[in-house]
Design a protein that fits this description.
31% strand, alpha+beta, four-stranded antiparallel sheet, 4 strands
């Protein structure tokens, strides 16, 4: 499982948007977005740039 930290989430709508964006990436499954920790976890071997692009398109940023 891969875990990423996400900057910019401020509500449950943000969680839903992030979940939908990650679930829309081929090869990713078992998405879990934690609002309190500002993290998302998922299974799958997907290039980080693909994930970063999907997150930035919905207005958030991955924290390295």
């Amino acid at each position: 499982m891969t875990t990423i930290s996400i900057k910019g989430m401020s509500c449950q709508h943000c969680v839903a948007s992030t979940t939908k964006a990650l679930e829309g990436i081929p090869g990713i499954s078992n998405v879990n977005v934690d609002f309190n920790r500002k993290e998302a976890s998922y299974d799958g071997d997907v290039d980080r740039e693909v994930v970063q692009d999907a997150i930035s398109k919905i207005g958030f940023e991955i924290i390295s």
